[in-house]
Amino acid sequence: MERSPARITVSRRETQALLVELQRLPSLIERLDKISAEATAAREEIESLVEKADALIDKELLAVNPPKCKLCSSKLILRSGPRGLFWGCKKFPKCRGSMDYGKWRRDALGMLTADEEPEEIVAHVEE
Questions:
Q1: Torsions phi, psi for 119 (to 5 deg)
Q2: Among 2, 19, 39, 90, which is least packed by CB within 10 angstroms?
Q3: Phi and psi (nearest 5°) for 102?
Q4: At 108, which helix (H) or strand (E)?
Q5: How far apart are CA 88 and CA 74, in angstroms?
Q6: Overall domain count for the chain
Q7: Whole-prediction pTM value?
Q8: Residues paired with 68 in a beta bridge
Q9: 113 pLDDT exceeds 50?
Q10: What is the mean pLDDT of residues 73-96?
């Protein structure tokens, strides 16, 4: 014996109410798009402010705690490599002293935890 599909009865009033709600969808979508655009703009502004704050913090950290080469005591220069930012010795290539930028920043901010490994210096000083 085959079962017939259940029939749903909807009154004219319910149908009209549903149509009214469906007609509101475009304006609701438009409002959501506007809110989304505003949220994106706010996020971009916050990211820009964070970058500016980081730059100011780094400037202050450099004034208080300028990095020095642990091999030759020369000034370290901020450089960019395939793995990101790092401090490289000013006397490169004669001295290959370097320091991880992120670690220097954490140390300078006093955020280095006791359980972290001390920094390894990968260097060779030519005589």
A1: -65, 140
A2: 2
A3: -60, -40
A4: helix 101-108
A5: 10
A6: 2
A7: 0.46
A8: 75
A9: no
A10: 89
Q: Could you tell me the residue range of the domain that residue 46 belongs to?
A: 11-64
CB 88 within 8 A of CB 77: yes
Q: What angle do CA 56, 120, 117 make, to 5 degrees?
A: 85
pLDDT the model gives residue 1: 58
| 9 contact partners, CB below 8 Å, separation of at least 6 | none
Q: Is the dihedral of CA 111, 43, 54, 57 positive or negative?
A: negative
- The Cα 54–Cα 104 span in angstroms is 14
b/e code 84-117 from CB counts within 10 Å (16+ = b): eebbbbebbeebbbbbbbebbbebbeeeeeeeee
Out of 22, 44, 64, a domain closes at 64
Asked whether residue 29 is domain-assigned, the answer is yes
For 100, phi then psi, to 5°, come to -65, 130
Q: Is the domain of 127 the same as that of 74?
A: yes
Which element (helix H / strand E) includes 58? helix 12-64
